Amino acid sequence: MFAVIKTGGRQYRVAPDDVLEIGKIAGEVGTIVQLNEVLVVGGDTPVLGLPTVAGASVAAEVLDHKRGPKVIAFKKRRRKNSRRKRGYRDELTVLRITEILADNAQPSIGPRPKKEKVAPAASEDDDEAPKTARKAPARKPAAKSPAKAAAKPRAAAAKKPAAKKPAANKAKTEGKGDKK
User: Fold this and answer.
1) Is residue 114 part of a domain?
2) How far apart are CA 136 and CA 148, in angstroms?
3) Rounded-to-10 torsion of CA 56, 59, 65, 71
4) Is residue 153 one of the residues assigned to a domain?
5) Domain that holds residue 12
6) How many CB atoms are closer than 10 A to CB 27?
7) What does the pLDDT read at residue 158?
8) How many domains are contained in the chain?
9) CA-to-CA distance for 141 and 13, rounded, in angstroms?
10) C-alpha distances in angstroms, 10 versus 48, 52, 143, 167?
């Protein structure tokens, strides 16, 4: 079974357990939202709406609110020294479609429970706990001592710039290009 829904000015073909990104809608992460603007309900006998299917809705679980990729609108008018650079990122909501409802039915499936991470159990034979690969936080470089900091400008002043080479003298050539 599938449905075509309209939200945020766009239309999406959805089926149960589909995950899709739509424009931001109200709803906390982990809650069930109902999308009531259903244009088509498909299956064995598809139902087309005029413009929407009466009493049909789609239930979806809100998985995340996030921002889309960066979009840059750059406009330039050549030879006019006119440029405009503007950018934005869309606010998105990630949904998982839980079920497609008809005849003003209410959602029967609740949000899925979050999976908890299970730590591996330590065996009784090992005396030491498993070592984690944690690094010590990086330290800031130590401040330079005043004696070393003062020595550097002197060393730079002690170096002399390279001597300039004298300009090469052009030898006069007789006979070529001379007018007499």
Assistant:
1) no
2) 29
3) -40
4) no
5) 2-101
6) 16
7) 65
8) 1
9) 57
10) 17, 14, 58, 76
Between CA 92 and CA 66 the distance in angstroms is 5
Match 């424009």 to its residue by tokens.
23
How confident is the model at residue 116, as a pLDDT? Answer: 75
Q: Does some domain include residue 92? A: yes
Could you identify the residue written with the tokens 């996030």? 66
Give 96: exposed, middle or buried? Use CB within 10 Å, 0-12, 13-18, 19+. middle
CA distances, 109 to each of 72, 100, 101 (Å): 40, 11, 11
Q: Is the peptide bond before 51 cis (omega within 30 degrees of 0)?
A: yes
Q: Would 11 be classed as within a structural domain? A: yes
> What is the H or E stretch that residue 91 is in?
strand 82-101
Per-residue pLDDT tens, the chain, 180 aa: give them: 899 999 999 999 999 999 999 999 999 999 999 999 999 999 889 999 999 999 999 999 999 999 999 999 999 999 999 999 999 999 999 999 999 998 888 888 777 777 777 776 655 555 555 556 667 777 777 776 666 655 555 555 567 777 777 777 766 666 565 565
- Rounded to whole angstroms, what are the CA distances from 77 to 74, 80, 86? 10, 6, 15
Both tokens assigned to 77: 């008018």
Amino acid at the residue 6 = K
**pTM, rounded to two decimals:** 0.58
Q: How far is residue 63's CA from residue 137's CA, in Å, rounded to a whole number?
A: 34
Residues in the chain: 180
